Design the sequence.
């Protein structure tokens, strides 16, 4: 483990640096003049808590417990921890360090290898797609939160014996929880009919759900207000949004442990089935959970770390946030299965059957459980408030990541108008999200979730590792970090970044291909398999963002002023003149300590005649 022995560099005005009079760096001079406007985190805790809020998303509360159960219970923690060490932590540290070293967003960070700078645009497109459909989930949570103040709770009882054609709803003396094989619970009907107004297929648009649209507008209004001053306002909000959910999770767990059947549920969760470790699908699930839970490849970690001080110990931060993220997943599993154990006890069924028959943990199982508790409005409100906070934390990071990327790429046009950029981004995401507010919205959401947030993020993660390790040079990257942190990293990081992490992600990619199943969805009428034309749209969503990589590469080659095609390509595979520390003090220290990296530079980004300023 490396330690940070550095002291903050003294601030020095860039005018003290003697200009060299070299031509061709006029544009970079403006980068200096805007460096102070870019800003830094108020305190390092703001950065850490923002990273925790981003990494700890809805998947930690909803997805991890179910994947853990499906993959051998407590035995799943073995491959989970293995991939945490092999891939999760190395990639988390990688994204934090490259963003901090360059003080650049997800687009401009690839000035280290300009030929492949299109990867940054690819990341931004995927983030936009993730943002607008992820916000719809938060809107659903907001609708449930609003209804949590009703007495009785609207999902705790039936409005008549039949709520939809041919689907009777069962009331029982135990409190509306008992359903026969051909019946569904009130919470299930509320989810599909009252919330979604679901249609029979994706091709049947259905009615416009005004309540979802209103909630979606409120969600985006909140996102804009929090990000109105960028990281300066986000950092302050993070103290609440990143910590408060842990108090809610703890309160839910303490109360759940007092309910009958909770211990059986937890036992079912942690009981190891070591025979499942021989199943390659279990290891694939563990790697996927680590990768997607950490938010690797989304560009948000690069954006967040770019606002850190140059000598911040990002290795310490990476270890701390990684452990918190994994611990939160495991902790949430106790809350989930303690509650499901109670539900199984009330229904007189097994925990396995309760999970298998549930169409939605957050919107069916939990609402059903809280309707049986004392003060159900209180517990329902706290639970959905927690989901709203967790979901908004992720949205904060996704929006700030893209806005940072755009403002860094076009600093003269956008950096001073960052608030307007944020406003247009939020408004655009809201308008696109309206398409998910119709009766077929669940079908569209699940289609995007199946393709946008899956295999393409794996490809981005692999590409990041290979570009930096094998083109920019892993030894040079480690030297960058050693200079930045004033330490000596273990050589284990070299092999982790160059071989182990990309190989682990590649194996997950292969597993995703081998075990690929057509997109499907559980509906009120049973399982729904998407038609082939939907599969085609889904794969277009996967492929289209990556078209930016060859397009940008071709554009840069054409713009190169001289040389053969080979010379242009080789030149564009080397860092350009604007790559490196953005603070002049840090750049000068780097040049003094590592002069060999600068001997072949034709120009540097601040070496401009004073008369040009």
Sequence:
């Amino acid at each position: 483990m490396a330690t940070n022995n550095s002291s903050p560099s003294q601030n020095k005005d860039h005018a003290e640096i003697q200009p060299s009079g070299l031509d061709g760096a006029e544009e970079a001079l403006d980068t200096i003049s805007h460096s102070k406007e870019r800003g830094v985190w108020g305190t390092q805790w703001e950065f850490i808590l923002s990273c925790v809020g981003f990494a700890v998303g809805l998947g930690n509360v909803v997805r991890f417990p179910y994947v853990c159960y499906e993959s051998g219970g407590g035995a799943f923690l073995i491959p989970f921890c293995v991939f945490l060490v092999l891939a999760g932590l190395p990639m988390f540290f990688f994204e934090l360090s490259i963003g901090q070293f360059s003080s650049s967003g997800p687009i401009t960070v690839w000035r280290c290898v300009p030929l492949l700078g299109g990867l940054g645009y690819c990341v931004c497109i995927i983030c936009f797609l993730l943002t607008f459909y992820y916000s719809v989930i938060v809107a659903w949570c907001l609708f449930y939160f609003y209804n949590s103040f009703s007495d009785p709770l609207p999902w705790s009882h039936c409005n008549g014996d039949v709520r939809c054609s041919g689907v009777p709803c069962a009331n029982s003396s135990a409190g509306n929880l008992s359903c026969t094989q051909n019946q569904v619970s009130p919470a299930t009907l509320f989810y599909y009919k009252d919330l979604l107004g679901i249609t029979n297929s994706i091709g049947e648009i259905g009615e416009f759900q005004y309540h979802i649209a209103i909630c979606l507008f409120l969600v985006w209004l909140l996102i804009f207000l929090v990000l109105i001053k960028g990281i300066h306002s986000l950092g302050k909000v993070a103290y609440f949004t990143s910590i408060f959910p842990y108090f809610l999770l703890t309160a839910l767990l303490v109360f759940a442990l007092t309910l009958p059947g909770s211990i059986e549920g937890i036992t079912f969760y942690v009981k190891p089935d070591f025979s499942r470790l021989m199943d390659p699908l279990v290891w694939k699930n563990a790697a996927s959970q680590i990768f997607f839970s950490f938010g690797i490849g989304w560009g948000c970690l690069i954006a967040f770390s770019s606002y850190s001080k140059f000598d911040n110990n990002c290795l310490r931060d990476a270890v701390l946030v990684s452990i918190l993220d994994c611990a939160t997943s495991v902790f949430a599993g106790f809350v989930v299965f303690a509650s499901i154990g109670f539900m199984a006890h009330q229904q007189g069924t097994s925990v396995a059957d309760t999970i298998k028959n549930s169409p939605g943990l957050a919107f069916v199982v939990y609402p059903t459980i809280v309707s049986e508790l004392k003060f159900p409005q209180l517990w329902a409100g706290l639970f959905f408030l927690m989901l709203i906070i967790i979901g908004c934390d992720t949205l904060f990071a996704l929006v700030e990541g893209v806005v940072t990327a755009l403002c860094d790429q076009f600093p003269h046009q956008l950096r001073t108008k960052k608030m307007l950029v944020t406003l247009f981004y939020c408004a655009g995401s809201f308008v696109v999200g309206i398409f998910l507010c119709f009766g077929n919205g669940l079908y569209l959401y699940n289609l995007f979730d199946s393709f946008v947030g899956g295999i393409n993020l794996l490809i981005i993660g692999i590409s990041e590792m290979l570009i930096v390790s094998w083109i920019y040079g892993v030894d040079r990257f480690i030297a960058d970090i050693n200079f930045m942190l004033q330490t000596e990293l273990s050589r284990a990081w070299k092999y982790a970044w160059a071989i182990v992490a990309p190989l682990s992600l590649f194996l997950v990619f292969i597993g995703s291909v081998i075990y690929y199943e057509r997109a499907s969805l559980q509906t009120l009428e049973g399982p729904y398999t998407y038609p082939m034309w939907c599969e085609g749209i889904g794969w277009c969503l996967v492929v289209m963002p990556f078209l930016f990589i060859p397009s940008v590469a071709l554009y840069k080659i054409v713009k190169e002023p001289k040389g053969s095609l080979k010379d242009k390509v080789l030149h564009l595979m080397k860092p350009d003149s604007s790559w490196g520390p953005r603070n002049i003090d840090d750049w000068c220290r780097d040049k003094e300590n590592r002069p060999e990296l600068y001997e072949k530079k034709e120009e540097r980004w601040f070496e401009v005649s004073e008369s040009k300023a």
About this structure: Residues 1-35, 161-182, 600-613 have pLDDT under 50 and may be disordered. Residues 314-347 form the longest helix (34 residues). The two ends are 44 Å apart (CA to CA).
